[in-house]
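Database export, one record per block. Field names are fixed; values are copied verbatim from the stored entry.
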Amino acid sequence: MCYCNLPANDNYEVPEEVPTIRYSQGKDFDSSSVGWMQPIHLWTPLKEMRKREDVLAMREHYFHHHSPTGLLAPNTDARDGIFNPSNDPHSFQGVGGHPQAQYVQLFESAHTTSEYDAFCNHPILRSFVRNFMSWEKEVMIKRAMMRHNCPNSLGTGVHYDKLFLRGSDDDFLTAWVPMGDCTARGGGLMYLEDSNQLGRELEQEFKDNAKNLGDKERVNAFNKHMADDGNLSHDAEGFRQTQAKGKLKWLVGDFEAGDVVFHTPHMIHSSAANEDEKGRIRQGSDLRFYEAGAEVDRRWCNHWKNGDNL
């Protein structure tokens, strides 16, 4: 995988102290196991890449779309995305969760609106991906996803993206787009530092174990050698202690509407607990890009649908 030089990122600041971070499942973190994210080639946080107003408008559109669910607190602005505390947060998760049956169609249709299509295909984003990866032309797979994480609900499990995209080339790029402001305590993504090689080693173990499986089962993130939900763990600190031998830190960051984070297929990541002081729902979008002509995972060439088992 080759890269161009990173663009100027003068607005990226690293605070002197890392706030206390909790994980929604498993053990909590101590101060020695968490650090602050900084720009490197394997994960690249870019400040103000998108216009803040454009991102907030998409956040507002998303929550307006879901207004029939009662997801938001009464008499609050959809753009703020304040969770209704009278709801059970575990029953109001979208992608990656178990949304209530009567609201599944709303979650699915949110991914097919013209507003979301335009958001994903923003020319500045697409141009950056081409230049960053030194590709003549890029393609974005259709199964883009918007995830929201309610305060006090379960976060994203420990994983790397290749687990779920085994039917494609390794050379793809993920863009995580925070759709609204999200502090380190607000449930944003966190990355296990220098874990790209560990991800590759784990994936090779899975490949070796699955070599006697049929083609369809071999690329399945939920095959008999994997966890039920395809993740590596739901105990981020336990994973750090065992798989990373306690040597690597989980890296967190404060994100704002307009930021974008890029990461590689084997970079191990998860999300912190959403303990936002304002009760804001963490929302983000996952976009994945390949070089034109590369082998893409054909299973991911349709819009996200609940229960598509990918």
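Remark 1: Helices lie at 52-65, 104-109, 114-120, 123-133, 196-209, 215-218, 236-242.
Remark 2: The radius of gyration is 18 Å.
End of record.
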